[in-house]
Amino acid sequence: MFDLTSLSSSTCMTPLGVTAAAVVVGAAAVWWIKSKSKTEVIDMTSKSEVQLLEMESSMVMMDQVAITTITFVKGDPSTTSTFLQQRVASIVAANPWLTGRLVRRKGRKGCFLVWDTTKLPSHFHSYPHNPSDAPMSREIAYEDVYVAANKRGMVLKKGMDSVGRDQDLFRVSLVPDSSQPTKRFVVVVSMCHVIGDGHTFYSVHNMLSSTASVSALDPTRQQAATEEYEKAMGSEMGLPPSPSGWLIANMMWGMVRILFGYKARAKVYYVNEEHVAKCKEAAVKEGRVGWVSTNDVVTSEILKTPYADTCMMAVNFRNKVPSASYHHVGNYENLLLYRPPDVQSPSLIRLSVSSLRRASSPPTTLIEGPRRLGEKMTCVTNWSSFDKGLELAGCDTDLHIPLYDFVSATSPVFFIGIVFRPCKGKLALLLLGSQRDMSEVEKMGVVGEKLDVVMRGSE
């Protein structure tokens, strides 16, 4: 369990002043991103490329932190290091796009993933135990583990910091556990979000297991997918290629609040599976749907926080639209958007997943225009359905968890819930946002016992 300091949001800025500040900050952000994303003339001899999706090249996606997880393992780090070095080499050989770099091409729109077909550099890094290095251990506070991993280069950079630069977009790292360096170790896997979503990340991550097989995934972007999302969702995509000015202004307003002292709080709990089972039974008795999933129950309860203006659920569109299949890598996800009446029961979530539309009656309308300034958004994303677990021969996986610097990776206008699989047979919730929202979600029955993770200032 961890706690990243409570919110301090008092300010005397007028709405006009806030808007002006947001516009200035937003313009500065756009200029900064463009200045860092240089176009290049590239010799394409012996190189392959794919043009990224329009959304992947957008400012919103370029500003996303890398998808990173850490797994604490009991076992011999030396033997496992040898295996992982060979396994990562096999994965990269089958999927050379993982060695690529992000570039912008002169005279061509968007961003490209380019890789050399004649070179397959190693993307596995094994670090020896060094007592003078920042410690990484199951007993060390989560925040300090992140800092130690970041200092070692295990956590990759945002897309905006990688375009036109010789920056890895995928990396697997192993380091012995500082407390028991011969008996335990940690594995950190990091992927730049621009080249893949959670499905892509775990499609590769799952291949690391000694019980898994290595397969080739298709990096060719299905450019028709964006139009198919829009058609399926009725033009109400949560992640449009070009966000509205008011949405950007609201995000910039969040940045202003950070300048005035906002700091996120984050906590981790097991999912209360007994409560989930009761909710599933009640939903079936209600009769609106034949069944609901665990995700429907968890999503409904997290999104019901009373302070949310707009609610969101991440949806994997592979096999939901014609162009994108499970073997396609990239960002084929989007967000279903809800208003509070749309999330009051698991049945409503199930109906929305089936139709890709909000399902309450009467129908709700989304917030638009100036009302978006100050809009509070709550989002749920589920990683657990993609994760098959990391199984390494002769080892026992102790804990698997997303690895982030939560202070810099979030915005005051968001409350976020990540569903993940901490170990075999268990589900957990990583909750991130203000203490006010956190307190409301903690009242929900879906929140179970605290996860056994060392984190500073947990209360």
Keywords, separated by commas or semicolons:
about 450 residues, alpha+beta, Chloramphenicol Acetyltransferase, 2 domains, 7-stranded mixed β-sheet, 5-stranded mixed β-sheet, 11 helices, globular
- Name the shape in a single word: globular
Strand content: 15-25%
Give me the Rg, rounded: 22 Å
Q: Any idea of the CATH class of the largest domain?
A: Alpha Beta
Describe the structure.
This protein is an alpha+beta fold and 459 residues long. It is built from 11 helices and 16 strands. The chain folds into 2 domains: 164 residues, Chloramphenicol acetyltransferase-like domain (Chloramphenicol Acetyltransferase); 214 residues, Chloramphenicol Acetyltransferase, CATH 3.30.559. Helix 9 crosses helix 10. It is globular and about 60 Å long. The N terminus is likely disordered.
